[in-house]
Specification:
The chain is α+β, with helices and mostly antiparallel strands. It has two domains: 11-134, Sandwich (Jelly Rolls); 145-214, Arc Repressor Mutant, subunit A, CATH 1.10.10.10. It is 40% helix and 28% strand. The protein is globular and about 55 Å long.
Amino acid sequence: MDRLQISFNWLNQLEPNVAQAVQSSMSIRHYNAGSTVYHFNDPADNIYQIVSGEVQANHVDSEGNEILYHIMTAGDCFGEVAVIELAPRAQTTVARVDTQLSVLRGEDYNRLSIQYPQINQILLKQQCQRLRMAFSLLESAAIGNLRHKLLKRLQGLADIHGTPHKYGIKLAIFLSQEEMGRMLGVSRQSINREFGVLQKQNKLLLEDGYIVLCESN
């Protein structure tokens, strides 16, 4: 599969002296599995990088339906947009497993971004990449039947979390069928049916619970 690998780590794109200045201003926080990093509409006062663990971004609507937007893993940064905008948080973020985060305070980001203009240049490039990814997700959600949407979403996840596998690309994160349903706004039972069809078509397989997208023969 010819895929564009998407990164959410802007710190590793900085010049070494700039990265060192940012990292020296960060502190470490620990979150247990299931702990909330921040809630929807909270004031935005920090930027985060995952040292270890996983964090998911989601939203619960007024009727109690949860939308799972995306999942981030070690190295990924998040929380920048609301800090830059001086706006409330647009999502809720939760630690999926025991997680360690590096935290950059908003006032330190403001100081560093003035001192080192490269920070904003790199962030702008990454936000453009994230915007392209968001457009792709919107397109895949609007076009085709559930099977098509499921495959497109899995391919998008492979762009971010994929690792080479003898049959194709393996997702390095564990995703339950219920979580896939929350990503697509459908029931677990609907996802289960589509998984069954896709497995029979040799388009995906499950290996110890992890999803493998199979190469076309």
